[in-house]
From TrEMBL:
Basic and acidic residues bias (residue ranges): 139-150
Recorded family membership: Belongs to the BCAP29/BCAP31 family.
UniProt-listed GO biological process terms: apoptotic process; endoplasmic reticulum to Golgi vesicle-mediated transport; intracellular protein transport; protein localization to endoplasmic reticulum exit site
Superkingdom as given in the UniProt entry: Eukaryota
Function in brief: May play a role in anterograde transport of membrane proteins from the endoplasmic reticulum to the Golgi.
Domain BAP29/BAP31 transmembrane: 1-106
Membrane-spanning intervals of the chain: 74-91
Organism: Panurus biarmicus
Protein name: Endoplasmic reticulum transmembrane protein
Entries under Pfam families matching the protein: Bap31, Bap31_Bap29_C
């Protein structure tokens, strides 16, 4: 069902637009992250200077509030940039996994078809051998031998194709397992980062509440 949904032509037309949008958001997050770093450095130096100069408490609190907001923007933009890249990587891995699963199913069908064809040719070869076993004429024997040689060559060719297809099938199966394992590891890492982000957000909210008080 999901394959039918994602195979709509509309998604392929929107792919270029979404790629451009993704790059635009990446550039925007990088700009916000760099700006937050600049603000943190700026207000950190001002904070130290004002503290050393022993200025009035209102100006000092104002500078401290600016520093806190710049640090909050730094954390938010940094985590947003990182999580956006993680999301992009997750989508890429899921796409690769879907393609590998599709190729896996196609190779499995090809292996089954080759196996059935090989069995069919072997059964025909056995029937021909049984039908021509009692006839000892020289000319018929030569034609029988030629037919058997052709059948043997055909069987060998089918066996070779079957072996080749089986090797490709096992290789695709190994690649699918590797991609699936990588996606599971990435999902666990993403859950861990989300927990850390929630903890950091809670600590920032507590600090902001204290500043308001």
């Amino acid at each position: 069902r999901w394959q039918k949904i994602f195979m709509f032509p509309l998604w392929s037309k929107m792919a270029v637009f979404w790629n451009k949008m993704f790059l635009t958001i990446i550039v925007l997050l990088i700009v916000l992250f760099l700006d937050a770093i600049r603000e943190v450095r700026k207000y950190s130096s001002v904070h130290v200077n004002e503290k050393a100069a022993n200025v009035n408490s209102s100006a000092f609190d104002h500078i401290q509030m600016k520093l806190f907001r710049s640090q909050r923007n730094l954390y938010l933009s940094g985590f947003s940039l990182f999580l956006w890249l993680v999301l992009r990587r997750t989508v890429t891995l899921l796409t690769q996994l879907a393609k590998e699963m599709a190729s896996h199913a196609a190779l499995e069908t090809q292996v089954n078809d080759a196996t059935e064809a090989a069995k069919k040719y072997m059964a025909e070869n056995e029937r021909l051998q049984e039908a021509l076993s009692g006839k000892g004429n020289g000319k018929k024997k030569e034609s029988t031998d030629a037919t058997q040689e052709k059948l043997k060559e055909e069987v060998e060719r089918l066996k070779a194709e079957l072996q080749k297809t089986s090797n490709a099938f096992h290789k695709a199966k190994t690649e699918v397992a590797a991609v699936r394992k990588q996606s599971e590891g990435l999902r666990r890492e993403y859950d861990h980062l989300m927990k850390e982000f929630e903890q950091l957000q809670q600590s920032l909210n507590k600090a902001e509440d204290k500043k308001d008080l």
